[in-house]
Design goal:
By secondary structure, this protein is α+β, with helices and mostly antiparallel strands. It has a single domain, classed as 2-Layer Sandwich (Alpha-Beta Plaits), CATH 3.30.70.100. The chain is about 40% helix and about 25% strand. It has an eight-stranded antiparallel β-barrel, surrounded by four helices. It is globular.
Length: about 260
């Protein structure tokens, strides 16, 4: 092979490597939807719709995993909310899902009771939605590694609000620079870390860790607080005052949840 061909093929190889690396680092987008409900009847309507209509349709249209979570019994909103987590590869996929569902006759039939519910018998009180983008430190969502019964698990959904955009971005930097690594080291099996693009209580980040039960969840936080890596970063001046409010929800996955 002469020198010009060698240079040509080397350039192609480098371009391919850069392209592949960029693709690997492309960040997911997430919809986090909260259905606020008033009674067990609405919860049943939602369970039927999500398990038998929405999730199968999402799978059909290229969304491999969908998470559905509910507050554990000790939470103030137990029986009053259902959380839906939908990961998307792009904003186009997010925007395009609604039109796909509108044309999907199998989905329309399976979800008819929900879709065509009467104003006098709605399946929820209100819907609250946030659009999120995965942090660079974990650009793709991950399935929990837990194998115990779903009803016994504790999935911890946290939102950290910042007093200003600058301080919020510093907290995001803190996660990307080492805070995520601590959760991984402690086997907290995180599903996602994300920045809120649109939603309530901005500026804020949102993340979810998973634990076998409440005792293990509490032990994980005890270990986190005494971890040397956390001790080495928590008092750094650049991370001072980065969280003005911590909103924590303790959930468990529905039996039909993919995550």
């Amino acid at each position: 092979m002469n020198a010009s061909k060698l240079i040509f093929f080397s350039a192609i190889a480098v371009a391919f490597f850069i392209s592949a690396n960029l693709m690997a680092q492309k960040r997911d987008f997430y919809e986090l939807r909260i259905y606020h409900i008033e009674n067990a009847e609405q919860e049943g309507m939602l369970d039927d719709y999500l398990a038998n209509a929405f999730i199968p349709a999402a799978h059909k249209h290229g969304i491999a995993k969908v998470g559905v979570f509910k507050p554990i019994d000790s939470q103030p909103n137990a029986g009053k909310a259902v959380y839906l987590f939908v990961p998307f590869k792009s904003l186009d996929e997010y925007v395009g899902l609604e039109s796909k569902l509108a044309k999907d006759q199998t989905y329309q039939a399976a979800g008819s009771a929900y879709i065509n519910a009467s104003h006098a018998k709605p399946p929820y009180k209100r819907i609250e939605t946030s659009l999120l983008q995965a942090m660079t430190g974990q650009p793709k969502f991950a399935e929990s590694t837990l194998t115990n019964a779903k009803k016994d698990r504790v999935y911890e959904l946290r939102s950290y609000e910042g007093a200003t955009e600058r301080l919020y971005k510093q907290k995001v930097k803190m996660f990307n620079s080492g805070e995520m690594d601590i959760f991984e080291k402690l086997n907290c099996s995180p599903i996602f870390y994300a920045e809120t693009i649109a939603g309530a209580n901005m500026p804020n980040l949102v993340y979810m860790t998973t634990h076998e039960n409440m005792d293990i969840r509490n032990e994980h936080w005890k270990q986190f607080g005494s971890d040397p890596d956390w001790a080495g970063m928590k008092d750094l001046p650049e991370y001072a005052n980065t969280v003005s409010r911590n909103d924590t929800k303790l959930l468990y996955p529905a039996e039909y949840s993919d995550l």
